[in-house]
């Protein structure tokens, strides 16, 4: 199993700088590349450093097309800058776990986390995000990649 250490934690709301888009599954990689570049440039213009690793925030459970934000956490809200928007990861109770391995098996880890949430008698809100702890590169061994998974819970 590629899912490690599922737990329910309280997550504090976190300011982010993101690009938001309606994306199909086959467009995710290109969207991320474009969004991260735009956000880094906007943060540079504003003299703001990212406050953590790159993230992807799914505003609903992914289907054929879905709303997605890609960017970085910031210490405080930024000024909107073209396609780059000030946004926020929500606060509240979340199911959190770590996905170990490449992105091709990420869906399996999400499925396992959602099943685990049900086994805890909890319900997911539908909003979820990934934090890319290990920055991928062409030389990276996929087995060494780590992605934190967060699934917002209701009630």
Automatic annotation (TrEMBL):
Highest taxon above the source species: Bacteria
One Pfam family of this chain: GyrI-like
Signal peptide location: none
Segments forming domain AraC effector-binding: 4-154
Descriptive protein name: GyrI-like domain-containing protein
Organism name: Ornithinimicrobium ciconiae
């Amino acid at each position: 199993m590629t899912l490690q250490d599922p737990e329910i934690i309280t997550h504090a709301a976190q300011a982010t700088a993101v690009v938001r888009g309606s994306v199909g599954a086959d467009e995710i990689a290109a969207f991320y590349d474009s969004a991260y570049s735009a956000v880094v440039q906007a943060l540079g213009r504003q003299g703001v450093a990212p406050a953590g690793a790159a993230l992807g925030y799914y505003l609903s459970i992914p289907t054929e097309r879905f709303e997605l934000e890609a960017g970085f956490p910031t210490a405080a809200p930024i000024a909107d800058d073209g396609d780059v928007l000030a946004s926020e990861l929500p606060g509240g109770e979340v199911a959190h776990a770590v996905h170990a391995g490449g992105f091709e098996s990420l869906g399996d880890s999400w499925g396992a986390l959602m099943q685990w949430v049900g086994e805890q008698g909890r319900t997911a809100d539908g909003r979820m995000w990934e934090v890319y702890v290990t920055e991928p590169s062409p030389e990276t061994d996929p087995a060494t990649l780590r992605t934190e998974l967060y699934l917002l819970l209701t009630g």
